[in-house]
Each structure stands twice: as C-alpha cells, then as structure tokens.
Fold these 2 entries.
Entry 1:
Amino acid sequence: GAVVSQHPSRVICKSGTSVKIECRSLDFQATTMFWYRQFPKQSLMLMATSNEGSKATYEQGVEKDKFLINHASLTLSTLTVTSAHPEDSSFYICSAELLTFSYNSPLHFGNGTRLTVT
Amino acid sequence: GIQVEQSPPDLILQEGANSTLRCNFSDSVNNLQWFHQNPWGQLINLFYIPSGTKQNGRLSATTVATERYSLLYISSSQTTDSGVYFCAVEGGNTGFQKLVFGTGTRLLVSP
C-alpha cells in the first residue's frame, strides 16, 4: 500500500530556532500534501494544503511566515517552523494525496513529528 | 465549514465487551475515513467508507450518508484497541481530499 514517511519523528529545539520537518511519499507521486497539527488531547487541525510547484494554501489563523511550506517535487513536502516558541510545541502530521486519486481512495498519513520547544 | 462531532468523547470497556462509536457530520461528504490513533500518535487507517457497510475482523463500520452519520463497531474488544478513534470527512468541492477530523473518542480497554 501507499506509504508516507515523515522525518524526524521527534525533535527538541530551543526557543528562537527553526525546525524543518519532511514528508515523503515513498511509492507514489503526490501533487498535494496536507499538514495537520494536534495539541495534546485534541483533534487534528488542518494547517495548510501543499501543492507541488506552487504556493501553499493556509487555513485561517495559520501564520504563513511562521510555518513555511515547500513542495518542490512530487514526493517531498517540507514544513519549517521558523523562530519556534514553546507554544509551537505540538504533534505535526502530514498526509499525501495520490496523483491519480479518485474519491474511492483513502488518504495516507505519515507517522507524525512531535516537536518540543524549550 | 463542515462540522464533525463524535460520541461518546470517552469510553471505558472491559476486555471482551462490544462498543459502538458514532460520528455525525453537518453536510454531505465525498470521503469518510475512520482512524485509530495509537499511544505513539500513529494514525492507523481503519476504513474508507463514504457510504455503506464494511467489515474487517472484529471491526465494522456503517455510513448512512443521507442521514449524515457513521458508526464504528468494535466487537470483543482487546487492550490493544485502546487509543483515540477519529472519523474524518471531506465535503464540498475543494477538488482535494482535504479531511476535517472529528472530535474523537478516547477508548480505554482494561484487562
């Protein structure tokens, strides 16, 4: 089945630094990837839709200058949390849509990245 | 946007018991998936079920699209079933599989 790889699985960084998270589709091409954020004991909230070769579309309330998304190829999207602060500590998870998706195909998710900002 | 509510929010079961989790959504959907999030945060895809009924081992799911709800049945529960269960839907004409997640049901199965 379709596999989405996310790296790193866990990262601890100091306040003010930037962190990059990678999301790769391993055995399929994905024109569209999605980034979600999950705070403890809460649901997943969509942050942005990442389209290969074009600018990402951010959901309302998500700062595009803080959460930089790059989708340079059909198999890789990156999320960079810039100037991270403790309130950015969260679980970030990506998903990928198959290039040839139809409404009969499920969405595939990475294993997530747990970010802790100290 | 579309709203997705799940019930109950929390559920405690004795091993071997059966349960039904419910997902209500506020508009018509093109895609509905059930996920199990394990204690490590991994989302396990259980069912892709925008309509109809599916079964996979001890789990089954039914979506009644016209009435805007879906049910997940867990039979003979095991401790490994513990975790959070989410339904997620995609509706409207976004052109993407842009899923909106429900509020979740936190399940604890005790031995």
Note: The first strand of chain B starts at residue 4 and ends at 7.
Entry 2:
Amino acid sequence: DTVLTQSPALAVSPGERVSISCRASEGVNSYMHWYQQKPGQQPKLLIYKASNLASGVPARFSGSGSGTDFTLTIDPVEADDTATYFCQQSWNDPYTFGAGTKLELK
Amino acid sequence: EVQLVESGGGLVQPGRSMKLSCAASGFTFSNYGMAWVRQAPTKGLEWVATISYDGSSTYYRDSVKGRFTISRDNAKSTLYLQMNSLRSEDTATYYCTTPIPTGYFDYWGQGVMVTVSS
C-alpha cells in the first residue's frame, strides 16, 4: 500500500502562514486530496487533486505538489483552523490516508 | 443539502455480526457510488469498501474481504455495511461517504461508533 507520511503536529500563531507536508512512498501523480477534521466531527474536504479548492472552502487554504511531495498551505491562519489535517491519495489501490497533522494555535 | 445519517453501531462481541445503515438525502442517490471509511480511536482514516451507483460492483480492503459486505437499496436511498466475524481491530467510527470518480470523498456522514469487545 502507498504510505503517506505527515509530520504529527505543528503550532503557529494566528495571522501566520503554515505549510503542512505529505510525502508519498510512491508516485501518486496529482491525485492527492486534503481534509480537515475538528474534534468530534467528520472530515471535511478542503483540496482535491493537489491544488483545487473544494466548494465553500476559504481561499486562505491552498494546495500544491505532484508525484510524491505535496503541501497544504494556510495563509493567514485563523483560530478556527485548529484541527487535524489528513492527506489522501487515490492514484494507487487501495486508497490510503496519512496519519494526520494536528495544528495548534499558540 | 446533502445529508448522510449513519445508524446501527454499538458494542458487539468478537466473532459476532453487526449491520450499519446510512440514510442519504439531498441528492439523487441512485446516480452515485458510495463508500465506507473508518477511523479507529485516536487514529487515522482507513478506506473500507466502495459500491458502484447500481450495486453491480463492489471493492474492499484486504483486511475485511470475506467478512464485510457493502450493499445499497436505491429505492430507499440507503447504504449498508454488513460486518461478520468482527475483530477487536474493527473497532472504529464508521463514516458513510460519497466517493468522486477521481478518488476523493466529497460528503461525509457524522459517523457511527462500533466497539468490538467481550
């Protein structure tokens, strides 16, 4: 299975820019997607196919990358962005998710 | 507004069975494939199974093949997951979700907890 590696946690101050990385163990073309999950809630789609903003998602969120290295950027970060962020690939079967990056606000 | 409402979870003993349901509304259910994704406590997400719009094709992760069955009733706009021979490692919150052909999951239900324990 394709393993997606994310850093476990980040802490930033409101107003700053943050980049969350996701590295795939093998190429996934541009088929990388990002989700936000707040405590006690279901995941919410943020970015699909590496760089496409999902409907209703603020333009503060953006995605980039291809192949094996991908980045989710939030600029500027707001207090409401406290959550865990997951990447997911759909190029190789089975579809797999990263373990998540917990974003905390200072 | 798209709504996905799961039900049927709870506590079950190892080796026993449980059936989850997901009632869908706000979209034409019979036009879309559906999927189950699970999340073990304090863990990441894991795709479980997918079914095509008409139920003719189903796909499973290896660890549940032969034990879980995904199905649907388009007349009732309802998705199901029949889980047999449950194991402790199946303990998780199970989410009903809408997979898009390019492979991402668009809408998610609120999830239903399944605990496998004696």
Note: The interface with chain A takes residues 43-47, 61-62, 95, 100, 102-106, 108-111 of chain B (CB under 8 Å).
